[in-house]
Amino acid sequence: xDLLNPNQSPRTQYEIQTESGRLVLEKQQVVRxxxxxxxLKQYEQAVAKIxxxxxxxxxxxxxxxxxxxxxxxxxxxxxxxxxxxxxxxARQMLGxxxxxxxxxxxxxxxxxxxxxxxxxxxxxxxxxxxxIAVEKRNQEQIDLKTQIHRWRTAILKGRSGASDAxxxxxxxxxxxATPILAELLQKKxxxxxxxxxxxxxxxxxxxxxxxxxxxxxxxxxxxxRIQEVCLEQLAEWKSRxxxxxxxxxxxxxxxxxxxx
Length: 260
Hints:
This protein is mostly helical. The protein has 13 helices and 7 strands.
């Protein structure tokens, strides 16, 4: 029906004019208020009088397209092809394509070929699974980075949970933490206490990122103790990656780098 008091504020009642009379509902009786558009009202009036012919359904489908009434448009196109299965334009508008002389709905045919719809594209299942895995991995790394920064803040500010934060930070075994800790290790003015923890955890995790971060600290860290522990770890690993890094530094035009 029509809402007779649309501007009531604050809302206490819904006064509605229906075909059979006036109805009053208290606010708490109403779960949802759906307002029909003018186009939908006009459609509902017109569709009651429509003839079940190809021409009538085609005309109504065109009007629904102009009014952006998509479900209603598809309904009339479906009725149309029941009456005229050869109507090419109606088939196309409903997403049909002609394959081997037969009309097939694109969605149905693609699924039959083994494709799945993902992010508005048809993809093979293996591609979708790989992308989902990457997204999951990225989200896991974001969550881990947030947690590491929480622990770091607790330690820096000496909060009541600092000892627990230190234990949790040292106990990291997830390889996804490697680039996060490597970035923190290279952070300017990071306290020695935290850098020593980063080196300890990176030593457990290993990998090229950990090697690169420690080699960089050997060359560039202002704290000699950090330089020493990083160099000791690289020596323990017998890292060829680190050897190449340092040999290339011997070609530097900076005498300070060569001496280091």
